[in-house]
Amino acid sequence: MNFSYFTFLVALSIFLISAPIQSQDTIASPVEAQLQDRLSVFLDCNACDNSYLRQEIDFVNHVRDPQLAQVHLFITSQRAASGGRVFTLSFIGKDEFSEVNNTLTYTSVPSNTRDEEREGLGTMIELGLVSYLAHTSLAEEIIVDIPGDFAGTSAARVDPWNNWVFELYGGANFYKESSKGSLDLRYGASADYVTPEWRIRLRPYFNYNRDDYIRDEEEVRSVRHRNGFQGRVVRSISDHWSVGVFPSLTINTYENIDLGYRIAPAIEYSLLPYKLALRKEYTIAYSIGYVYRDYLEETIYGRTEETLYNHSLNLGVRVLQPWGTVWGGVEGSHYLHDLSKNRLSLDTNVSVRIFKGFSVDFSADYDYVQDQLSLPRGDASLEEVLLGQRQLATTYGVSVAVGLSYRFGSIYNNIVNTRL
């Protein structure tokens, strides 16, 4: 390659790289002007296929920060009783649309594929944007077409399952190498019944964990079982009050429980009406329960079985807002026969958008533990500790996590590219 040809290639490369870069004083191109005339929307959804939605809803500008948007679309989702998901779409108008707010709901049935779910959600988003587009130059291009014949009356829907939803699950993990191996099995079922008045859940579960180690040509095996049943029967009695009962049964070799069960009635009060709990929830719940345990080994208190009574008070808060999310709970409990056998748990999770593209995430959990009544008598061997066969005594548990994120760049992100 001669010098003049090499010089030409270098000059061409520099031109191609620098060509898209323009100063802010440069007059906007026709494409940029068209982008700036469009409705600016900030899509705020952690449970959505955002790339798909930006690509399909291409008649608006999808901006990267809520401060730059005319419409803040805040989407939350919850698991439906049927096994599907219910999306709540909050359209929050800003600037000239500050008086235009709307809320829509989209339900994805359990039989929907991921593609069908995102397509249905996209259609609902387009419907919600109509009230804003009607005030733009695109108003004359909007066409409403509802296929079907609605002249006749529709027959009442018959549900052969009477609002019951059933699920079976199972799984297995197997690992093997020359000096160790493991086998984990888990399976179970659930039955859910949900109406505006009732919420019922019945869930048996089974877990088998086995670890094998070879040391000095001798095989050491550790086996743990964790089986049980969890139930919930809750009755709504007003917009703020609910009552229920929570039965449970457990077999847990790690916690030295051969057989245990608990029956606990409970009552809950919501400071806000339950119908507003999709975005804000403040609750107070009280529970008192009867507990029976049959132990595998004699406990540190000299018990091989015992009957107990305990109660708990729980304060919970959950807030989902465009500026971020807050979730927290405080629960205190103790056994009635001995107030010193108690536990206090604090759980918090906060995610706050500070300014353009910058967010702070913080979570912290703390447990003050004084209620380990099932600990077996005697010291745990090194083998039991390393193999995780035995619960150890503790007085507290703490976990803390902090995260930062910052996004910057072009205010428009309409283009989607999924190559590689």
Can you give the helix content as a percent range? 10-25%
- Spatially, the strands of the biggest sheet line up as 6-7-8-9-10-11-12-13-14-15-16-17
Characterize the main sheet. 12 strands, antiparallel
Shape: globular
Number of strands: 17
What labels describe this entry?
420 residues; mainly beta; Double Stranded RNA Binding Domain; 12-stranded antiparallel sheet; 5-stranded mixed sheet; 5 helices; globular; disordered C terminus
Summary, kept brief:
The protein has 420 residues and is mainly beta. It has five helices and 17 strands.
Structural write-up:
With 420 residues, the protein is mainly β. Among the domains are: 32-140, 2-Layer Sandwich (Double Stranded RNA Binding Domain), CATH 3.30.160; 237-406, no CATH class. The chain is 13% helix and 50% strand. The protein is built from five helices and 17 strands. The strands form two sheets. Strands 6-7-8-9-10-11-12-13-14-15-16-17 form a twelve-stranded antiparallel beta sheet, with no helix packed on it. The chain has a five-stranded mixed beta sheet with strand order 2-1-3-4-5, covered by helices on one side. The protein starts with a helix and ends in a 14-residue tail after the last strand.
